[in-house]
Amino acid sequence: MWHRQFGAVNAVWEEFFADIPSPARTSVGVSALPLGAQIEIEFTFYREG
């Protein structure tokens, strides 16, 4: 199911990070997530200063 929603997730991700470089992220498909979550995103972000 997660792979069918990947386009929608990408659209939100690109909108959220429109003014800055997008952080690197990891996506892994699983059959279920805790608490009924539909998506989990791990990302790495670096902010100067």
Number of strands: 2
Order of helices and strands: HEE
State the helical fraction. 10-25%
What's the number of domains? 1
Q: How far do the termini sit from each other?
A: 40 Å
**Arithmetic mean pLDDT:** 81
> How would you classify the helix and strand content by structural class?
alpha+beta
Q: What's the shape?
A: globular
Strand order of the largest sheet: 1-2
Please, how many helices? Answer: 1
Low-confidence stretches: none
Percent of residues in beta strands: 5-15%
| Rg value | 13 Å
For the largest beta-sheet, the strand count, sense and barrel status come to:
2 strands, antiparallel
Give a quick set of tags describing it.
two-stranded antiparallel sheet, 49 residues, 12% strand, alpha+beta
